Amino acid sequence: MRHMKYRLALCTALGIYAFSPAQALAQAGFDCAKASTETEKAICAAPEIAEADRAMSLAYAALVERADLALKQALKTDQADFIKLRAEAFESSLSNAEMRQQSLLDRTEMRAEFLNWISVTESTSLEGNWRNVWGLVKVEKNTVGKLAVSINVADQANGSWLCSFEGELEQKSATEAEFKGKGGPLTLKLQGALLNIPTPFCDESTSGGYGTAAGNYFRVGQ
Question: Among 1, 31, 54, 100, fewest CB within 10 Å belongs to which?
């Protein structure tokens, strides 16, 4: 067993993702016999990562099964973005093989946990923590009872852009609020179980105008 672990560690360090009988027991969330990319081969070659990928896929399937049509479509888009970003991060040359391998495991485990926290219930309040693959939108009442928003979204593959913003909102209805100040307008809308930011918005002082907070966000936690 010690020799098997040593060979796996050596192959990983060298970027060689060959399968052994022991590794073949690991099941990822996809068919490892059809693994074609560097990322897919790395997942299938490491039982711990394959197990995490399978857990993520099971969590995703269970969530989609309970979701309505709009939520299903939003989840499909977000999951595809995650798979793409995960591959970009792993196949980047910005870190060494060991760090890339650990990051691949961490990203996959965190994604599975995130999927397990998403609510499928139709929301009646803008307040709460809303997340997607790009980051977090937090809506809460401030010290004077006004609705306020904090946005932190970024390129999750290599950090090439960051969009960070905090501001007070004008609540137009129970399901819609708007910020009209510098850099705005920023609109937040409830759409069933989703929070939607319909138009591009980003704080240019931190991002230089790259990236955007636009898109669908999922309520996490309570």
Answer: 1
